[in-house]
Amino acid sequence: MGHSDADVVAHAVAEAILGACGLGNIGEHFPDTDARYKNVDSIKLLELVVKMAHENNFDIGNVDCSIVCEQPKIAPYRDQMQTNLSLAVGAPVSVKGRRAEGLGAIGRAEGIACWAVALVTQEK
């Protein structure tokens, strides 16, 4: 359970952008001790992260996400997820799903993991 809406994919994309830009992490900018972020839409947080990147003269080239989960299957939602994330980021975002195939908590369908990597360039 998360403090915001706990959208693991939006959070991973935000973390990837913040990390690529050297701007810290999501917890620094949107702490779970701040009531303003309780149940907030993670796409809104992602949009704020993109704004921070732009304010620091970074352009986002693309983001790639790998989601690991047993349920739900990602394929039926993939295109809509890519569209929504790409609109928030202002750059292409690819999403792919894979299974943990019974390994660990994720393999037992007790959680979801997502890794993302962002390509950014900084204007001088």
The number of strands is 3
CATH superfamily: 2-C-methyl-D-erythritol 2,4-cyclodiphosphate synthase
Radius of gyration in whole Å, from Cα?
A: 15 Å
- The overall average pLDDT, rounded, is 94
Provide the helix percentage: 25-40%
N-end to C-end Cα span: 40 Å
Return the structural class: alpha+beta
Strand residues, percent: 15-25%
Strand order of the largest sheet: 2-1-3
Q: Ranges with pLDDT <50 over ≥5 residues?
A: none
Predict the CATH topology.
60s Ribosomal Protein L30, Chain: A
The largest sheet, given as strand count, sense and whether it forms a barrel, is: 3 strands, mixed
Element-by-element helix/strand order: HHHEHEHE
Overall outline: globular
The CATH class is: Alpha Beta
Number of individual domains: 1
CATH architecture verdict: 2-Layer Sandwich
Number of helices: 5
Topology (elements, then pairings):
Elements: H1 8-21, H2 26-29, H3 42-55, E1 58-68, H4 78-89, E2 93-98, H5 104-107, E3 113-122
Parallel strand pairs: 1-2
Antiparallel strand pairs: 1-3
Helix pairs in contact: 1-3, 3-4
Task: Please explain how this structure is put together.
The radius of gyration is 15 Å and the shape is globular. Helices cover 39% and strands 22% of the residues. Helix 4 links the parallel strand 1 and strand 2. The protein is α+β, with helices and mostly antiparallel strands and 124 residues long. The mean pLDDT is 94. Strands 2-1-3 form a 3-stranded mixed beta sheet. The protein has one domain: 60s Ribosomal Protein L30, Chain: A. It is built from 5 helices and 3 strands. Helix 1 runs parallel beside helix 3.
